Task: structure prediction
Amino acid sequence: MSITLRRAGLSLVTMLAITLASAPASAADYVLRFASLFSPNAPVQQDVLVPWAQQIEKDSTGRIHIDLEPLGTFGKPVDYARMVEKGDVEIAYTVQGYTPGVFPETTVMELPMLYPDSVTGTKALWRLYDEGLLAKDYANVKVLGLFVLPPYGIFTVDRNVTSLRDLRGLRVRTPSATVGLALQRLGTIPIGLPVDVLGENISNGLVDAVAFGWDTPRSTAGFGDKKTLEQQVKYMVDANFAAPALMMAMNKAKYEAMPEDLRKIIDAHSGHDFSMNFAKYRDEHEAAAKKRLAQDPTHVVIELSPEQREEMRKLVAPVVNDWAAGLKKQGIDADKLLARARELVSAANTN
Result:
């Protein structure tokens, strides 16, 4: 090294000065790896997650850098929750149902036909968390956001659905075990799949339909010559029956090790208000997507009649008992949890 420097006619001091001059004016004290479920250009990525990360970096004057990366960069979505807990990444946006059994209390908000929209459901979910009724689920992470999505539709590849009987026998992707219980009561065969493998499994004929949000298929990768998942499905049933819970969580040890002023910056952009703003965003985009797809000649949007909705309600009603029995085996007071969830949903609907 010294020989090379002498031959170049440069001293070590000079080289150090050049290095410092070319370095950023202020390097981040904390780099937080953030694993996202979305592609780089997905609306939620660009409209919600990127601005969130940028605002925290700005408010911390660069002391925090959030390395927000799209789907698949840091690992598989099914591993995100465990990766956060272990510290393999510092932050993740993920679906609790991708790791079955880890968030049992939260599954109360995934029961069918419990809430009408994301705002109502998210408000109830956050209150359950705030009141300590979900404490065990999130004991090992720092919660940044908790949400439920607008109740899902069921999108089939090639089967027209004129009655609920037409759903029988379909292999339907489910985002969580609890949503799968409802799908099973409709006569379908639920198959648990994360978002990153949906297109491939549809293309290979392993699933016939997906339970999914209305806005997301447009920005979810398809397979082969189908660039998006939306291009792989044709019949879209406005089932409006159940959806998964999601979270944005941070490694607890990493958060607690940060200085108080930096923790306050993260807290200021997270929590209840962030969750509610996200829920409002999802409801607005869901409504716009339904309207757009109804006018799209390549898709058929199927509205259920009041009689069909009542039939669906009766078919999925036993799911509550199945769910409660499962939680009681884990020592969780399912009756108390469900009663409070229903109270909160009712209160949110009347406000």
